[in-house]
Write a structure and sequence with these properties.
Layout (H helix, E strand, L loop, with lengths): L9 H13 L2 H8 L3 H15 L4 E4 L2 E4 L1 H28 L5 E6 L1 H6 L1 H11 L4 E6 L2 H9 L5 E5 L7 E15 L14 H6 L3 E3 L4 H10 L10 E3 L2 H9 L5 E4 H9 L4 E2 L9 E9 L6 H16 L4
Parallel strand pairs: 3-4, 3-5, 7-8
Antiparallel strand pairs: 1-2, 5-11, 6-9, 6-10, 6-11
């Protein structure tokens, strides 16, 4: 017997469950990688299709109506059944799809990806992984073009057309050679001082540079760079030879700071150089197979890591 026209599509049911769980159409839309107007329109269309109001809307958010709570319960069963079917299909396809194309920003690729891929190899020994590196802008472009199954980027935002999840956090530090005047400062470096100083920076499009430029925007923006280099290794070498201050991930310079080949400059507390590290994939296409497994491993690793 065919389903009646009153039964919503699976995507609409997933949206309704997300709204019920998060208490907001906007937060549900962000989680599913769609715009808020599109999510609101889909909810209203589902209400017309079913014939009853599903949400009570207020300035504080959205909560299910009495009828909505019933539909949410039924929707949960449908979505869970669909997820079970999805997992079963993945299992059927695993032999053919045991290939994973990953593209990651340099920091993630060099300092986090080796551990994640080792865990993936232990969990799924038959998965063949191809890993490429690029700056965050190019990572996003390759994922959108279908050239990678999963990408990893640095920076405060996700490019339109991509969905993502934060898998770790990182902090940028300003480092100088031991002989640099900033290495002997007694007062923290202010945002205005950092913005006015020509720095040795990564190339445009890198997540590191995007975070720094965002943080310095309230101080008039970053000064014209002293030079631009395309790798963390080159930036560290430039800093150690006295070319000028460099801004890099603390993951990248941990060894140099421990051996005093570089010195971290103390910054004023309001200069926030923390950044999220995200996994990204095309919006509306949840990762499947090895990509889903790798994503799960990164999240479990983050939960085990202190301070992340």
């Amino acid at each position: 017997m065919p389903l009646s026209s009153h039964v919503p599509e699976l995507g609409a049911l997933e949206l309704l469950l997300a709204v019920a769980r998060l208490g907001s159409v906007g937060r549900a839309a962000a989680e599913l990688g769609i715009s808020q107007p599109s999510a609101s329109s889909r909810i209203k269309g589902m209400e017309r299709q079913i014939g009853v109001p599903l949400l009570d809307r207020s300035p504080r958010g959205s909560t299910p109506t009495e009828a909505g709570r019933l539909v949410v319960g039924w929707a949960r069963q449908v979505v869970e059944a669909a997820q079970a079917m999805d997992a079963g299909i993945d299992a059927l396809r695993v032999r053919r799809d045991a290939k994973l194309r990953v593209v990651a920003s340099l920091t993630v690729a060099e300092y986090l990806m080796p551990g994640w891929l080792l865990a993936l190899a232990e969990a799924s020994p038959g998965t063949a992984v191809t890993l490429r590196t690029a700056n965050s802008a190019d990572v996003a472009g390759q994922v959108l073009a279908g050239e990678a199954d999963l990408g990893f980027v640095e920076g405060p935002s996700t490019r339109p057309g991509l969905a993502g999840a934060v898998v770790a956090t990182d902090r940028l530090v300003v480092v100088v050679a031991p002989g640099h005047p900033w290495a002997r400062r007694h007062a923290p470096l202010t945002g205005a001082e950092l913005a006015a100083t020509p720095l040795v920076l990564r190339e445009p499009g890198s997540g590191t540079r995007e975070v720094l430029e965002t943080a310095l925007r309230p101080y008039g923006g970053a000064a014209r760079p002293r030079m631009e280099l395309a790798s963390s290794t080159a930036l560290k070498a430039a800093a150690m030879t006295g070319a000028g201050p460099v801004c890099l991930s603390e993951l990248v310079v941990a060894e140099e700071l421990a051996t005093r080949r570089l010195v971290a400059v103390e910054l004023v507390p309001e200069l926030d150089l923390r950044r999220p590290l995200r996994a990204v994939w095309p919006a509306g296409q949840l990762p499947g197979g090895p990509a889903r497994e790798l994503l799960g491993l990164t999240r479990r690793s983050t939960k085990r890591s202190p301070g992340k």
